């Protein structure tokens, strides 16, 4: 989602990413999402702020939060799979405009792969997003 790789997501990058994934966001909606989640006030989302956006706030029930997290998780898995693989991660990053090598994706997965099986389960993904 971070098209220019500056470590932050702008409203425009968020809008483009959602549109790529099939969810149409207006400029105003993207700006509002960033404003609501922008804790440090810089007008951009860093990793923690983005994770909070995906996680949601306490207004949602635990079940709703888990459903939202599962929706995000499913964006990164290949059809018929139940985990994020280096290949599926690379595919999604390419859709979002990011160019990563297979080795890059493997390193990203290893950072949160608690059982060292080379893939991310839903639980590992959820833990990553809550950090």
Automatic annotation (TrEMBL):
PANTHER family: CALCIUM BINDING PROTEIN. Residues 1-24, 25-60, 100-131 form the EF-hand domain. InterPro entries: Centrin_CML-like, EF-hand-dom_pair, EF_Hand_1_Ca_BS, EF_hand_dom. SUPFAM superfamilies: EF-hand. PROSITE patterns: EF_HAND_1, EF_HAND_2. This is EF-hand domain-containing protein. Pfam families: EF-hand_7, EF-hand_8. CDD domains: EFh (cd00051). Keywords: Calcium, Repeat. It comes from Brassica carinata. SMART domains: EFh. One of its GO terms (molecular function) is calcium ion binding.
């Amino acid at each position: 989602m971070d098209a220019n790789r500056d470590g932050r997501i702008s409203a425009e990058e968020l809008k483009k990413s959602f549109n790529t994934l099939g969810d149409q966001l207006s400029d105003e909606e993207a700006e509002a999402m960033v404003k609501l989640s922008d804790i440090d006030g810089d007008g951009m989302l860093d990793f923690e702020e983005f994770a909070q956006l995906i996680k949601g706030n306490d207004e949602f029930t635990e079940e709703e939060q888990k459903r939202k997290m599962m929706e995000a998780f499913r964006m990164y898995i290949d059809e018929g799979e139940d985990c994020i693989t280096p290949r599926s991660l690379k595919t999604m990053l390419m859709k979002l405009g990011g160019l990563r090598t297979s080795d890059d994706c493997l390193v990203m997965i290893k950072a949160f792969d608690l059982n060292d099986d080379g893939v991310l389960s839903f639980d590992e993904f959820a833990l990553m997003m809550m950090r």
